[in-house]
Write a structure and sequence with these properties.
globular, disordered N terminus, 24% helix, 704 residues, alpha+beta, 6-stranded mixed β-sheet, single chain
Length: 704
């Protein structure tokens, strides 16, 4: 397999070329309109009032002082808000009863002429609670621990093959280690926002969402309206990372306020509200046991995960699932356990399951390499499976070994630690995997008399360059220059398409766009005479194909390499270099792909060193709930970062041969950094993030 640099990749066709993002000029000049920026005549603004107790009931709401403020239009509570039909998602049952399920839940909404007045009015609302005893502390030995039927994405909570406990006990070399990943938060640059208006019997919504089709379906149920009378648009979305993958309370609040007041209303959530009402990555407690022979071949793999979920809605992070995919071993156990607590509902965050799960598994593999005195790259290669270990299905493609070999060469891999004054320097490696997801989608392609083409599908561009990539797929299928293709996305008025999530967006939408354009090209080939004024069109619907069960195990793979310097005086860890090498199918756009890989790796760096949240047991709230306390990496934290890929085309995924790339960049990065810290210091840290206080304590304990 040939290795291709992210920026050097070139193609004779539109697909693969490093085309610039089409919406880039709009974004950098401020012309791009986001959900809160639709300045409609008579628009009002609303500000939520959040619960100050961790569990209980609202005893009373006194809105008198708020209503006396000039400019305040209304205060909605559970007593006067319009009634909703109960949605499938309990998170969206807002202002409908007096129950307080967790700290930060919405208990009132102030609507005013402007944002500042709405916020001031919210501060004047006085809420009296009947507080109840609460529990927000996750422990592996919690008396409420249970084993759910499923984890996120429908994975069985438990999978067992052979005799894993006995095989582990009989193994020549054993690792038995515990790892902890704290709660993590998505924090997109654009906070969750929605603008809603009722126009007669129609509801029109602009929302920051990764999938407007799902938002429309939810609103239709909640407000008892036919879907055809609801239009939901997401023209531009300023990031989501999973937190905008399902409808969130902001869109319900905006629609409730619009119905109550008869005016357009914008709800733009304050960043401090996001950890409580838009999901978070649940904390995970891992026990990983690896048994192997003296040659390094695994005989037993056991990965047990305990996480928290909410009493309101079950969500179980599928963190043990990657251990079902990665390495060959005849005896295996993967199990998920959960504790229902009085916490906000956890949800998707970039690479849910895979990111925390691979941190634990890849850290344990590094520990096994240490026990064996074996190169960690060679250990992984020695345990390369012929088929997917869990299912026995053949891989549609798997080039992990090539990623490890080529990545090691490019990174100048070394197992030797060095010292530079007070700094200890070392390198680490970890593998990565992410499942290939493809969902049914529809698209329409239109040829116009002026020689241009328009492609329409309700895809969502969350900053990944979807508009551009879909135009490239269309131009490739039509055999025309890229500049002659226009894309229309981000509205329920367009052909239905799935959400942007699970690294499945481009693969799903692209399949339908490819199909529509292929049909259009065939129609144009036999068409005679000029095109009619309305043009010539073709449609495609991948239902029955994209969702058909595949005989193959379909995954993307990769390898991460990190070099760190650890200051023995301050305990600070600085990442000097990061390199990712990926096998992710055919790369559709070299420029946007590199951006996605680098973005994921940067997020993984934050997971390793700076990002982490704490649930205060006394108040039930997240102590780190804004960007002042929750530290995401800045440019200075990423001095040298590279992304490369193997020239891989997988014919068993979709007609383009592509796989998703949005999430695999984060998977494995934290483990690679943690393994590099171990190599540099000789100390194994098993709890993220690796903040200076933890590192200093570990170094002192080891006498370093």
């Amino acid at each position: 397999m040939a290795a291709t640099s992210a920026l050097a990749a070139r193609s004779s066709t539109a697909v693969g070329a490093p085309a610039e993002r089409r919406e880039g000029p709009e974004k950098v000049t401020g012309r791009a309109r986001y959900a809160a920026e639709h300045h409609l005549p008579g628009r009002a603004h609303a500000w939520p009032v959040t619960a100050a107790v961790a569990r209980g009931r609202v005893r009373s709401v006194d809105a008198a002082r708020a209503l006396e403020l000039p400019g305040v239009i209304a205060v909605l509570t559970h007593d006067n808000a319009p009634r909703l039909a109960e949605p499938d998602d309990p998170m969206l049952w807002v202002l409908q009863d007096d129950r307080v399920p967790h700290h930060g839940a919405f208990v009132a909404l102030v609507v005013a002429e402007d944002l500042e007045t709405a916020r001031a009015g919210a501060a004047e609302v006085k809420v009296v609670y009947a507080a109840e005893a609460h529990d927000v502390v996750l422990r592996a030995d919690h008396p409420g621990v249970y084993e759910p039927e499923q984890a996120n994405a429908g994975y069985p909570a438990r999978r067992e093959q052979g005799e894993p406990e006995d095989a582990f006990a009989e193994s020549t070399v054993r690792v038995d280690a515990f790892y902890r990943v704290p709660p993590l938060h998505n924090h997109p640059m654009e906070p969750h926002s929605s603008t809603a208006r009722f126009d007669g019997d129609r509801l029109v919504v602009h929302t920051s969402s990764q999938g407007t089709t799902a938002v429309r379906a939810m609103l239709a149920t909640a407000f008892g309206m036919p879907e055809e009378r609801i239009t939901v648009g997401a023209e531009h979305v300023g990031g989501g990372f999973g937190s905008k993958g399902t409808p969130r309370p902001d869109v319900v609040l905006a629609a409730l306020a619009a119905r109550h007041t008869g005016r357009p209303v914008t709800v733009a959530l304050h960043r401090r509200m996001l950890p409580f009402v838009t999901g978070h990555r649940a904390p995970t407690l891992h026990r990983v046991r690896l048994g192997a022979g003296a040659d390094g071949r695994l005989t037993s793999v056991l990965h047990e995960v305990t996480t928290h979920t909410s009493r309101t809605k079950e969500f179980v992070e599928q963190a043990a699932v990657p251990a079902r995919v990665m390495y060959a071993a005849p005896h295996r156990l993967t199990v998920h356990r959960a504790v229902a607590l009085d916490v906000p509902v956890p949800s998707w965050m970039r690479a849910p399951g895979e990111a925390p799960g691979m941190y634990a598994l890849e850290s344990a593999m590094d520990e096994l390499a240490d026990e064996l005195g074996m190169d960690p790259i060679e250990l992984r290669i020695a345990n390369e499976p012929d088929t997917e270990p869990d299912s026995g299905r053949p891989f549609s493609s798997r080039h992990l070994v090539e990623c490890l070999r080529e990545g090691a060469h490019r990174f100048r891999w070394s197992r030797e630690a060095t010292r530079e004054g007070p700094r200890l320097v070392g390198q680490g490696v970890a593998a990565a995997t992410y499942p290939v997801g493809v969902r049914p989608s529809t698209a329409l392609a239109l040829a116009l008399p002026d020689g241009t083409f328009t492609v329409r599908t309700n895809a969502t561009d969350i900053g990944t360059g979807a508009r551009t990539v879909l135009a490239q797929i269309a131009a490739d299928a039509l055999g025309v220059p890229l500049e002659r293709v226009r894309t229309e996305i981000g509205s329920t008025e367009l052909p239905p398409a799935p959400l942007a999530g699970g690294s499945s967006g481009s693969s799903s939408w692209g399949w339908s766009v490819h199909g529509a354009c292929t049909r259009l090209a065939a129609a144009l080939a036999v068409h005679t005479g000029p095109l009619p004024p309305e043009g010539l069109s073709a449609e495609a619907d991948t239902t029955g194909r994209a969702d058909a069960e595949s005989p193959y195990a379909r995954h993307a793979f990769g390898a991460h390499f990190a070099e760190v310097a650890v200051d023995t005086v301050t305990g600070e860890t600085r990442v000097r270099r990061l390199l990712g090498m990926y096998a992710a199918g055919r790369i559709l756009n070299a420029r946007t792909a590199r951006s996605q890989f680098v973005g994921g790796m940067t997020m993984g760096l934050g997971m390793a060193l700076t990002e982490g949240s704490t649930l205060d047991p006394a108040f039930g709230d997240f102590a780190e709930c804004d960007l002042a306390m929750y530290h995401v990496p800045a440019h200075a934290d990423v001095p040298d970062i590279e992304a490369h890929w193997i020239d891989e085309e997988d014919p068993h995924v979709n007609p383009m041969g592509s796989k998703g790339i949005g999430e695999i960049g984060i998977v494995g990065t934290a483990a690679a950094i943690g393994n590099a810290v171990r190599r540099a210091t000789g100390v194994r840290f098993r709890e993220l993030p690796l903040t200076p206080d933890k590192v200093r304590a570990g170094l002192r304990g080891a006498g370093r």
